[in-house]
Amino acid sequence: MNEQSDKTPNQKAPHILNASSNLLGICFVVLTSLKLLNLAKTTIIDEVATVDIVAFTTSCLLSFLSLRSNDQRSYLLEKIADFIFIAGIVLLLATAILFSFNIIV
Q1: How many CB atoms are located within 10 Å of the residue 48 CB?
Q2: Closest CA to 3 of 102, 72, 103
């Protein structure tokens, strides 16, 4: 019995889509705020927010495509979306920690 037969298809995709779209919005707010306050020139947080935007957008797109598909590709898209989502979360967490301890400004 393989791993996929134990799980229903698209088990995590709706959750990934919901969470990554919410975090995508937060990253857009952060990036817009930095640009409006003219802080983008003095900090690297805008570059990190841009990388997070790309990660969460990719995660949203792949999880949406996973929901639209009903074959083996659906499971693969869900796994890739999950991995990219986790990478975006880790990057966001690392940025928050470094910013909190004034390591990056």
Answers
A1: 20
A2: 72
Q: What's the pTM value of the predicted model, to 2 decimals?
A: 0.83
pLDDT tens-digit series, residues 19-47: 999 999 999 998 898 889 887 788 888 89
Annotated domain spans of the chain: 13-100
Which pLDDT value is given to residue 58?
A: 96
Of 12, 6, 10, which is closest to residue 69 (Cα–Cα)? 10
User: Would you list the DSSP string of the chain?
Assistant: --TGGGS-TTSSHHHHHHHHHHHHHHHHHHHHHHHHTT-TTT-SHHHHHHHHHHHHHHHHHHHHHHHH--SHHHHHHHHHHHHHHHHHHHHHHHHHHHHHTTS--
> Do residues 85 and 20 touch, judged by C-beta distance below 8 A?
yes
